Amino acid sequence: MEDIVAYYENKKTFHLVVARAYPDLARFRREDNKAEFNSLLLKVIPEVKRYIIRKLNTAMQKGLIPRGKYKPEDFTDQLFIEVYDHFDEIKSKKDFHPWLFKKADTLLDDIMADEEFDTLFLDNIDSYARVEWDSMAEKYSTDGDGDLVMMEELDDISYRKHDYILKNIFIEDNNKDLMAKLDQDLGKENIRKHTEMVLHHLPTEMRMIFELFAEHQFDIGEIAKIRNRTVQEIEELLEAAQRSIKISLYNRFINE
């Protein structure tokens, strides 16, 4: 558990690293020094690259885009151009990291068709028993073959530690005993796999909001800016995602 906590603390620290790069980037932009600008930008966008990869993987798995048609580099290369050309849109260093994610979203959304979501999953999530969850997990594991991974990330320890920690699902203090039981009985890898599978079946917006909150450590206000929604909408969608994961964990692993 300690290594996961350290991982999430590192995520928060990385937000500060990105913010601190903003003044130098602004200076390079004023000087029209594209080489230095891009060199520094390369050091502050690894989380955005992971975000792009995950969104492309989900789109491929759901059949929204053909496998092999797009590569993560198609979007990161364009992102460099967009950031340089529109850097004056960023109002402060605090806004810089959320703005990068918002710009990446715009690039990705431009090539994706509208997703058709089957409401039966959410409508019936309370009634799914363990056998149904196991069946969904098996199918999800099969469908997930061939996911994109950027080569430089294979050696990145933070990539291997990617996880959805239980504290992002069970916010209330009165769930500590349940969290400890799940952590002990299942282990972080099984919790991660199950959470990934549930998120895969959720509506795109709900899934992305949970990922921005849990994986990338943005707060509610920042997510609202990234996704062009109100704070109340973000809170409601995040709570719905957390509720879905909670119910699935209860019905698959607790209420046997």
Q: Could you list some keywords that capture this structure?
A:
single chain; 256 residues; mainly alpha; 2 domains; 70% helix; 0% strand; disordered N terminus
Short description:
The protein has helices at residues 2-30, 34-44, 46-61, 72-85, 93-109, 120-123, 130-143, 157-160, 176-201, 204-214, 220-227, 231-254. By secondary structure, the chain is mainly alpha-helical. The longest helix has 29 residues, at 2-30.
Topology diagram in text:
Elements: H1 2-30, H2 34-44, H3 46-61, H4 72-85, H5 93-109, H6 120-123, H7 130-143, H8 157-160, H9 176-201, H10 204-214, H11 220-227, H12 231-254
Helix pairs in contact: 1-2, 1-5, 3-5, 4-5, 5-11, 7-9, 7-12, 9-12, 10-12, 11-12
Spell out the helices and strands N to C: HHHHHHHHHHHH
Number of strands: 0
The amount of helix comes to 55-70%
Mean pLDDT: 82
**Alpha carbon gyration radius:** 19 Å
The number of helical segments is 12
